[in-house]
Design a protein that fits this description.
Elements lengths: L3 E6 L6 H12 L2 E4 H12 L5 H15 L3 H12 L4 E5 L16 E7 L2 H11 L10 H7 L3 H4 L1 H7 L2 E4 L4 H16 L2
Parallel strand pairs: 1-3, 1-4, 2-3, 4-5
Amino acid sequence: MAKIILGFVGQIASGKDVSKKYLEKKYGAQSCRFSTILRDVLTRIGVEIKRENLQKVSTALRQTFGEDLLAMAISKDASNLNSDIVIVDGVRRLTDIVHLTSLPHFFLVKIEADPKLRYERMKLRNENVGDDKKTYEDFLRDHEVEADREIPAVMQTAKYSLDNNGSLEDLYSQLDKLITDLKGK
């Protein structure tokens, strides 16, 4: 079977991470995440890992070394992972998929969920410092920052879609069907 590379795109707390973890556990998938590079840089230089700092370092790197810098690194990482299924988590910009779309068996998958549901999930997981303190209005403003502004446009280019408004079992069922369908390609 050829390697399947899935690029997950979705708004904040739409279910990208839970989908990735399910595929890792059930199918032995491996993953790479755009923000891992940014988190590594912030950790190394001793700067707090919060959404604002991730956005700043991303902008600085892309403006200095090219808009597709992170995309090139992730594309290389995805190609080098030794797994039948690879997940690229955190696709945000059209430039993020430029190099990925040239890889054989790359599929862009959008994950959608209601904004209020995503807000509650974001607060519960508290992945970045201060997420649990944000108001719904703060959460909605986060969608307008440079790092997240292009997500809807990228989602429109996806050939595959997952609806994460239901239970985890519903999401897992959709993921299983997606993998079955893609293995047949």
